């Protein structure tokens, strides 16, 4: 009787194969389910991308969102494969190797997705926030810093997963950063100042600025220094830390109009109101002088030999102030001559008093 039942009951080898077949079937189903979930997620992403494309008017189009979400969809498949292999009754050492490889792949996919999201955001909003020229300096640096941060984060998570002591690594990185910071403190100060200039925008590329006695046009704003072309065509390279801590004048802000000034004196006894009116009318007639704001003349002080007047006028650009001032001076000479207004030379009268007390007697 026992022999009959043993015919129907499977032996130990059959039980082992049945168990393996069951586990393999469940693992295959898990992998298939993960694949179906990834395909469904891909369709959902495509539908969402179409809506987002309409809302953002093409800023975030379907290929862009697909590029960002592609690592996430691959992550679903690798996560399913990770779960499927973890439940198989494999040797422990083989389990550790395969699960470790899949964990590293998942971390790399997450870091890739984060990097692509950062890259697309910088491409679309970097120029809008920092400007065309400054983004050329700022965006590559942000990309490099972001890449280093993502790589370091992925490395620390991976080491932590494999039970490595990351405290010593973090400590070494902190000490190394401190040493580098102390050794390159001036460079770091200039770089931080460069970020400040790019964000605060006290001047732009092409603006004319006055820095102490130097006046020039901003050619380039770098991370370490700013390059300025002076009026005598020399090339100034100024560290950014000095620009952040120095009083400077931006002649292009709030606009590029230039202000001219002519200071002169008229003889005592001259009709001051007539002289002021002649100055204003003469300036208005000179080409290049703006009608608005209108030229103004002021009686500023009493001089030793003249009544001092000041004429103020505006030009379309600060680059034309010298040329317009020349024309205004020539026109003033002609107008004063026509109206009988004299510009006196400095004079001095000396009185000699005869000393009668010590005069020689005959």
From TrEMBL:
Entry keyword annotation includes Ribosomal protein: no
Main location: membrane
Residue ranges of every copy of the Mechanosensitive ion channel MscS C-terminal domain listed in the record: 262-343
Alphabetical list of Gene3D superfamilies matching this protein: 1.10.287.1260, 2.30.30.60, 3.30.70.100
Mechanosensitive ion channel MscS domain span: 186-250
Transmembrane stretches, start-end: 24-45, 65-85, 97-117, 138-160, 166-184
Gene Ontology cellular component list: plasma membrane
GO molecular function: mechanosensitive monoatomic ion channel activity
PANTHER family: SMALL-CONDUCTANCE MECHANOSENSITIVE CHANNEL (PTHR30221)
Protein name as annotated: Small-conductance mechanosensitive ion channel
Organism: Geomonas silvestris
Gene (UniProt): mscS-1
């Amino acid at each position: 009787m026992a022999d009959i039942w043993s015919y129907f009951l499977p032996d130990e080898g059959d039980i082992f194969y049945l168990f393996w077949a069951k586990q393999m079937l469940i693992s295959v189903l898990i992998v298939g389910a993960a694949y179906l979930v990834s395909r469904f997620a891909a369709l959902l992403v495509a539908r969402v991308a179409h809506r987002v494309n309409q809302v953002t008017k093409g800023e975030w189009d379907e290929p862009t969102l697909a590029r960002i979400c592609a690592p996430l969809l691959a992550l679903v498949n690798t996560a399913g494969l990770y779960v499927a292999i973890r439940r198989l009754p494999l040797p422990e050492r083989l389990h550790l190797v395969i699960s470790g490889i899949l964990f590293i792949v998942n971390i790399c996919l997450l870091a890739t997705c984060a990097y692509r999201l950062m890259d697309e955001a910088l491409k679309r909003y970097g120029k809008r926030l920092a400007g065309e020229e400054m983004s050329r300096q700022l965006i590559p640096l942000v990309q490099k810093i972001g890449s280093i941060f993502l790589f370091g984060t992925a490395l620390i998570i991976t080491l932590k997963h494999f039970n490595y002591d990351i405290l010593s690594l973090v400590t070494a990185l902190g000490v190394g950063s401190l040493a580098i910071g102390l050794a390159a403190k001036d460079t770091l100060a200039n770089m931080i100042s460069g970020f400040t200039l790019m964000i605060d925008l006290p001047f732009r590329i092409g603006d004319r600025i006055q820095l102490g006695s130097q006046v020039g046009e901003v050619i380039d704003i770098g991370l370490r220094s700013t390059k300025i072309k002076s009026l005598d065509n020399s090339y100034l390279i100024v560290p950014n830390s000095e620009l952040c801590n120095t009083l400077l004048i931006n002649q292009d802000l709030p606009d590029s109009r230039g202000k001219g000034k002519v200071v002169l004196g008229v003889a005592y006894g001259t009709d001051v109101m007539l002289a002021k009116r002649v100055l204003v009318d003469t300036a208005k007639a000179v080409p290049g002088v703006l009608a608005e704001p209108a030229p103004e003349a002021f009686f500023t002080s009493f001089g030793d030999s003249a009544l001092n007047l000041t004429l103020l006028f505006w030009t379309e650009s600060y680059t034309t102030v010298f040329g317009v001032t020349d024309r205004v001076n020539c026109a003033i000479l002609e107008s004063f001559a026509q109206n009988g207004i004299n510009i006196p030379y400095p004079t001095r009268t000396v009185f000699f008093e005869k000393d009668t007390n010590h005069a020689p007697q005959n």
